[in-house]
Amino acid sequence: MKRSFYICLVTMLSVMALPACNKEFLDRYPLDKITDNTFWKSGNDLEIYVNSFYPKYIIGFSDAWADGTVAPYGVNAAILPYGDVISDNAAPNSYARVSANQYNAHLSGAAGSGGWNYANIRALNYFIDNYEKAPITPAEKNVYLGEVYCFKAWDYFEKVKLFGDVSWLSHSLQTNSPELYAARTPRGEVMDSVMALLDKAIAMLPIKGAEKSGRLNKDMALFLKARVGLHEGTYRKYHTDLKLDPTAYLKAAADASEELINSGRYALKQGTTSSVYFDLFATESYKGNTEIILAKEYSATLNYGAAFSRYFAQNLRHQFGATRSLVDEYLCTDGLTISTSPLFKGKDSIQAEFTNRDPRLTQTIANFGTYNLAVGVTSGADNAPKPNIPGLSGNKCPTGYRVAKWFYNNPVDWDRITNGMQAAPVFRYAEILLTYAEAKYEQGAITQTIIDKTINALRARVGMPGLTIGQEPADTRLDNIYHQYLSYPVAPLLREIRRERRVEMAFENTRWHDLMRWKAGRLLEVPVEGIKFVQAQFPKVVINKDVYLSSEGFLLPYYKTLPTGRTFDENKQYLFPIPIADIVLNKNLGQNPGWEQP
Predict the structure, then answer these.
(1) CA-CA distance, 158 to 155, in Å (whole number)?
(2) Interhelix angle for 138-163 vs 218-238, to 10°?
(3) Which residues form the signal peptide (predicted)?
(4) Looking at residue 587, what DSSP letter applies?
(5) Closest CA to 513 of 56, 88, 167, 226
(6) Strand, coil or helix: what is 228?
(7) Short-list 582, 586, 580, CA closest to 117
(8) Whose CA is closest to 258, among 445, 424, 3, 469?
(9) Counting beta carbons within 10 angstroms of the beta carbon of residue 449, is it exposed (0 to 12), middle (13 to 18) or buried (19 or more)?
(10) Residues in Cβ contact with 517 at an 8 Å cutoff, skipping those fewer than 6 apart
(11) Residue 549 burial by CB count (10 A; 0-12/13-18/19+): exposed, middle or buried?
């Protein structure tokens, strides 16, 4: 059954009186249009109310122009493919303030901005306060309540990642509610409540296949529990100053992952090793795809789409490229690192360094001539990804490592503009495999059997050799980086588990959060470099005018704009600041460490 979310369609089916799919209705804040005397009269009312939350949390590529930004990250509204631009995986043409330690509390803006917004929490709580009024069976009510619990847990998880301690609200508030002026709830209490909500949601939601089309099911809540458990468990383990026990969260991550793995309902998509990974991200439908647990799809019939494929193909949003930091982590085809493999051809050109590498490298980043338009197609002829560095025409790739993952080679879809139909995989089974391996390692319970069914399954899909515990490949390059930038040692097996996550999940909005939970923010300070510049390949590009090079000849995208490089302040940057305007309204909120104003 398709795990897509045609929000308009669901609403139309629920409210037959609506003559068409009304976008304004979907965006309307429910509390402003609902009166208790006329609402909560049927299961239909509950469904209508909950419908409005789906596009708020299942964002995918956003919708319409998708030209807004997500606060406080400063990332394009299609955060799934663009979230990594603030991490060490990517370099946007204009460097990101967040990763350059140039974000401050005043940039958060007005009250309720900068990520500190509780409008959706209030709406979710309003449902919790009123849903029982509907004259339907408890079982029918609980399905919608399970959805609301899942969304509320999701919302608070995102808030905790941003701010640590946040304001836990159990009920919808009024203008005179004392909670509006209360101190923040400690992180430990909030996360315990988040996990409790997820457990309730898992118990209430239908099993896969029994849910109404396009709605949440039990497996989706299990996935979220695994993601939450891994993030919180590892955050607590490496941020020892919190003095919070990670044990229960690591166990929750492992158990939820194991349940999904053992269910037999999911499997990695298979295909030709040279294209299977790329193909997974370039489609209009995930119907029948056993790797996708949750996706957002769009509907041409309902005039519901997003301007994603066109602008990604043009590299218009952020005008970004991948970094050498990411590229250097891909193994060679013998399973060895570039530090040790005899198959590595060196870095004298992008063609050389992409030879004999993990096939996911060329399915994630474009080499010359690897992504061409179909024969006879002239529309968007400059759109196919290639190393389009500064000094050339078109939207620049500042590192030369142009990201090809998510490139949908379909000029018809580009011409749809705001009605683009490219589908977005929101929850992917591959992440569950990675979560399971990492959680079991952090529990001290990793085995070769677990590695085989997780890390090695991902590698086998693209024809890469497996990983054997105790025979991890040497990597002096990466070990030296970890030694220089991290405050703790990383064992070879953990290094390989983290490597696999970085490679498999590149440009799926996980890297920033991984750095934060691993207490590895200083990896952002690794110098940002691009491809080796070869003048013969770029005869019209002028050195020290169009591009600037390192002593080894690698592109330096921020040589002029950020000459001292990116910095990360470990005393404050693992959390974002509470907006100043909100602290003015409620001084009891306090400010996160390091963000206090002088």
Answers:
(1) 5
(2) 30
(3) 1-22
(4) G
(5) 88
(6) helix
(7) 582
(8) 445
(9) exposed
(10) 230, 231, 232, 234, 235, 238
(11) middle
Closest Cα partner for 95 from 562, 573, 547? Answer: 562
Strand ranges inside 399-517, DSSP E: 424-428
Helices (H) and strands (E) in the chain, counts: 23, 6
Geometric angle at alpha carbon 536, from 532 and 538, rounded to 5°:
70
For residue 42, give the 3-state DSSP assignment: coil
E strands, 409-553, are 424-428
How far is residue 88's CA from residue 86's CA, in Å, rounded to a whole number? 7
Q: Largest alpha-carbon pair distance within the chain? A: 75
Cα distances (angstroms) measured from residue 277 to each of 81, 133, 291, 376:
15, 48, 12, 26
Read off the amino acid at residue 395. N
User: How far is it, in rounded angstroms, from Cα 5 to Cα 54?
Assistant: 7
Q: What is the CA radius of gyration of the chain?
A: 24
- Show the tokens assigned to 562: 């950020």
- Please report which helix (H) or strand (E) contains residue 237, including its range: helix 218-238
pLDDT in 10s for each residue of the chain, 598 residues: 334 433 333 333 232 222 233 333 333 444 556 677 789 999 999 999 999 999 999 999 999 999 999 999 999 999 999 999 999 999 999 999 999 999 987 776 788 889 999 999 999 999 999 999 999 999 999 999 999 999 999 999 999 999 999 999 999 988 888 889 999 999 999 999 999 999 999 999 999 999 999 999 999 999 999 999 999 999 999 999 999 999 999 999 999 999 999 999 999 999 999 999 999 999 999 999 999 999 999 999 888 999 999 999 999 999 999 999 999 999 999 999 999 999 999 999 999 999 999 999 999 999 999 998 766 666 665 678 999 999 998 888 999 999 999 999 998 999 999 999 999 999 999 999 999 999 999 999 999 999 999 999 999 999 999 999 999 999 999 999 999 999 999 999 999 999 999 999 999 999 999 999 999 999 999 999 999 999 999 999 999 999 999 999 999 999 999 999 999 999 999 999 999 999 999 999 999 999 987 5
**SS3 of 319-358:** CEEECHHHHCCCCECCCCCCCCCCCCCCCCCHHHHCCCEC
Which residue, 491, 497, 441, is CA-closest to 467? 497
